[in-house]
Design brief:
Layout (H helix, E strand, L loop, with lengths): L8 E3 L3 E5 L3 H10 L1 E6 L5 H12 L3 E9 L2 E8 L5 H8 L3
Antiparallel strand pairs: 1-2, 2-3, 3-5, 4-5
Length: about 90
């Protein structure tokens, strides 16, 4: 289940993303260096990549999108030089 303390992050008014704090999301952070976000329905991979790179000053390697009902989720794989666990700690996820 999703944590109710989900913080909404808005940067430069372009895109609204919310980090997911679930068991699966934390497992992906620790094992595969992947951050999980709930994003706007009209978001594209290129918009998400640009926004994440600007907000967290990281390099994104790959993005996968999952549409589930009315929600859209982005699985963002970060460059190995930037551990996702560091960003999750800064956001207060872990």
């Amino acid at each position: 289940m999703e944590n109710k303390k989900q913080k909404s992050i808005k940067n430069s008014g372009i895109l609204q993303i919310k980090p997911l704090i679930t068991e699966k999301a934390v497992m992906l952070i620790e094992s595969q260096n992947i951050m999980t976000f709930r994003v706007d329905k009209d978001s594209t991979k290129s918009k998400i990549k640009k926004e994440v790179e600007e907000m967290f000053n990281v390099k994104v390697e790959k993005i996968r999108i999952m549409n589930r009902g009315t929600d859209k989720y982005a699985y963002v794989k970060l460059n190995p030089k930037t551990p996702a666990i560091d960003i999750a700690t800064k956001l207060g996820m872990i």
